[in-house]
Amino acid sequence: MLDILRQGAQSWGIKILFGIIIAVFVLAFGMNRVQNDQTTVVATVNDSPILFRPFQERLQRSLELARSQNPNLTAEILAQMGFKRQILEQMVIEELMMQQAAKLGLTVSKEELAKEIHLIPAFQNESNVFDPASYQNVLRANNLTPGKFESEYMRGMVMDKLRTYVGLPGRLGEDQARDFYTYGRSTATISYLMYPWENYQNQVNATDARINEYYEARKANYAVPARAKIDYLLLTPATLADPAAVSPEETEKYYAEQKEQFKIEEQVKASHLLVRVDENADEESVEKAMQTIKAAQKDLAAGKSFAEVAAQYTEDPSGTQTGGELGWFGRGRMVKPFEDAAFALEKGAVSEPVRTQFGFHLITVEDTKSAGYENYESVASDIANIIAEDRAAEILQDRLDQALEMVLVGEPLDAVVKAIGLKLEIRESDYFTKNQGPRDLPGLSPENAQVLFDLPQDITTQSPLPIADGYLLATKREQVAESVKPLEAVKAEIVAAITRDEALKVAKAAADKDLELLLKGETLTGATVKETEPFGRQGTINGLGMNQLLATKAFETKSGAWLPEAYAFPEGYVLAKAIQVTPPADEDWAAEKELWLTSLNERAEEQTMQAFVADLRAKADVRITNPALLEN
């Protein structure tokens, strides 16, 4: 019911109360044996009581919600969180809000309440009209009475009115919202000089002394964690299965009875090239894209292969490497215009330009598959595996018991394999660490990976460890202690790091020297000046990378002026000159105005409400009258 009601109740106050009104009324969580009746007072808020029963209901509901989101929550974790006190604090805040609403004369009439309840889809019939019978049935199914439900729903509406009342002074007008929008959506452009560290690497030298110093200071970076290796035996339907024991008659019968399992849809194997253009692009952009498409068509007509042409023209990032190959796909996998064109093509043909929201495509179909069924011969071996694994699943527990009996009396894994027979084999894992279990054991939990790592040398697990589809038995074969890579093994890496670090220093010194001249109004001869694309205040600059300080200064510096320092990027240091700051267009504001007004006002109201509630809480007289109820 909670999910259904949420469809019709979006207000903040009502959302808070759903945890109460849908609560399970008879269960308790971890309560010390206290009197379980309506008169037990947990706490008072300005002399108003919070009673045991509502607290119990809220606690139980919150616990169910928390555990549904995190099944691993234990009593210890909940105790560390102060879970019970958190729930009580929520109820204290709500009581303070209701008290304040009463002081302000905020109420909800019966007519308002009825109107809101009538809008809840859970209580409406197929014609979307409130149905009293549905109302009664839904409440009854959730152990609620109309009186209880309406009381709590009205409480939520009152709190929502309080939130609106308190938040009104913090709401922004359109001009204020436009200022925020302009600030957030403006872009800056700079010209810049790059001083790549690679240009200065020949001016530095990584001496032996510097290499040793670097290595000693960063030995932790070169630590090799302790590692282990195991021999293991998998007991799963797949490892116990014996497909050779399945007769042709059995596979034929399975195929006949389960034929729908082998149904295949109509498919095409296609390639494409894409020239991107926005679906709302202007005529000039569309024409430019079409010229590129026509050039590609001309090359295809001249005899070039589709893969070659796609690699040259496509703007699909993966297409340049694959020749535009998309592989096999059925209907419903691609956008409709693309799908329709692909499935209409003959094998080997190339489509006319196809327009989608991504741009213009040229498509070629390499092969096709008609809808139908996979033939028996192509799936017979797969069917034999299915039948064999089904049989193996039935004997898995017996084989596991047999293996455990042998392991517990000290038999090695190879003896287990011989006794069980079939095609079981002992496998050897790669090295693994305490924090990263064997890569070839899917479904092994971190806890069980730890069990394997902690096994003593040559000891076999005394109980099976669950993995995907079955169980694992393992013997520790090797343990390698933690170590540090020797200097010689990492010397080349260290030399590269020192060279880069020192070259960056030289690059910065060169940039600083040139900046002094530029700030004096002098010009640099032979310097290559580049210009960025427009960028925002977040700090990411296309072609350079991330530098928040540069981005901030670019918005603050007047056009034509050099920024006051050299800025670091992965490639080197940059000197930058402000070109311009461009505010967003009026039409962009018109398109996004409502979204920004709503978002900014919600944030402003929330901040105002948080401050208001914090003030109420600070001034409130809250007394816990029954501390035993909050003990874990």
Automatic annotation (TrEMBL):
<keyword id="KW-0812">Transmembrane</keyword>
<keyword id="KW-1003">Cell membrane</keyword>
<protein>
    <recommendedName>
        <fullName>Periplasmic chaperone PpiD</fullName>
    </recommendedName>
</protein>
<dbReference type="GO" id="GO:0003755">
    <property type="term" value="F:peptidyl-prolyl cis-trans isomerase activity"/>
</dbReference>
<dbReference type="InterPro" id="IPR046357">
    <property type="entry name" value="PPIase_dom_sf"/>
</dbReference>
<keyword id="KW-0413">Isomerase</keyword>
<keyword id="KW-0697">Rotamase</keyword>
<feature type="transmembrane region" description="Helical">
    <location>
        <begin position="12"/>
        <end position="31"/>
    </location>
</feature>
<dbReference type="GO" id="GO:0005886">
    <property type="term" value="C:plasma membrane"/>
</dbReference>
<keyword id="KW-0143">Chaperone</keyword>
<comment type="similarity">
    <text>Belongs to the PpiD chaperone family.</text>
</comment>
<dbReference type="Pfam" id="PF13624">
    <property type="entry name" value="SurA_N_3"/>
</dbReference>
<dbReference type="Pfam" id="PF13616">
    <property type="entry name" value="Rotamase_3"/>
</dbReference>
<dbReference type="InterPro" id="IPR023058">
    <property type="entry name" value="PPIase_PpiC_CS"/>
</dbReference>
<keyword id="KW-0472">Membrane</keyword>
<dbReference type="InterPro" id="IPR000297">
    <property type="entry name" value="PPIase_PpiC"/>
</dbReference>
<dbReference type="InterPro" id="IPR027304">
    <property type="entry name" value="Trigger_fact/SurA_dom_sf"/>
</dbReference>
<dbReference type="InterPro" id="IPR052029">
    <property type="entry name" value="PpiD_chaperone"/>
</dbReference>
<keyword id="KW-1133">Transmembrane helix</keyword>
<keyword id="KW-0997">Cell inner membrane</keyword>
<feature type="domain" description="PpiC">
    <location>
        <begin position="265"/>
        <end position="367"/>
    </location>
</feature>
